[in-house]
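ok new one. same drill as before - structure tokens go in, u give me an amino acid for every spot. 100 of them this time. try not to just spam alanines like last time pls lmao
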């Protein structure tokens, strides 16, 4: 099984997540609620970086929630080690299609 990772944003840049690295997708809040889309892309884990996005399918996917305000003052850089650990952990268990 291949792991694909994704990141969720609150705006909709396009109709489906962009693959930013092999098996790592950048998506938004609308993508996180589309089970058919997640299945089509082989998504198995979701990295939810927001303060208001729900985990729609907790029984079916691995989630990591990082509560961050959507503003210019949000300190995302300090969160990178935690986020990288999650992605690496998913990759190591072959659970590696992720939406960020």
């Amino acid at each position: 099984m291949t792991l694909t990772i994704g990141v969720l944003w609150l705006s909709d840049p396009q109709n489906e997540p962009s693959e930013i690295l092999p098996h790592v997708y950048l998506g938004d809040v609308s993508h996180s609620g589309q089970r058919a889309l997640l299945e089509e892309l082989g998504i198995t884990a979701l990295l939810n970086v927001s303060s208001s996005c729900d985990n729609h399918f907790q029984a079916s996917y691995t989630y990591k929630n990082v509560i961050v305000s959507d503003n210019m003052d949000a300190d995302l850089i300090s969160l990178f080690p935690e986020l990288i650990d999650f992605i690496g952990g998913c990759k190591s268990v072959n659970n590696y299609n992720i939406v960020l």
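Residues 3 and 92 are 9 Å apart (CA to CA). and btw Residues 4-99 form a domain with the Protein-Tyrosine Phosphatase; Chain A fold (CATH 3.90.190.10).
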